[in-house]
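Deliverable D4.2, example record:
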Amino acid sequence: MGILKSIFTWWDGATIGTSWFTARAGRKVGEDGLGNVYYEAKKAVDGRRRRWVIYNGANDASRVPPEWHGWLHCTLDALPEQALPPVRAWQRPPEPNWTGTPQAYRPAGALEAGGRRAAATGDYEAWSPDQA
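Output generated by the structure prediction step:
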């Protein structure tokens, strides 16, 4: 199933075409904590080398950490380990975009969170057009 999956699915890892292009024209430059692998083109076109990522799992751009995002978009010339200061103790690790999943943020009163809101206090008065 592995070869068929790489031929017919684009949403989970690299397709066979991307894998072939990467093997032929790319060189591995690094890997992040999520297992995503980053590549840079062997040859420069117009003075710039193309950069790309092969995701470990689902192809979701929100799974690229901020430091590697900067490298992918040529904001950083050097690799993140060389260009950025070390991670501080108070910094939290990045999280993917949870929209549409059970882990998504649901405020009080949202239908998915039970649909119950706190009762209104006496400080609110609804607007009526005849009051204008």
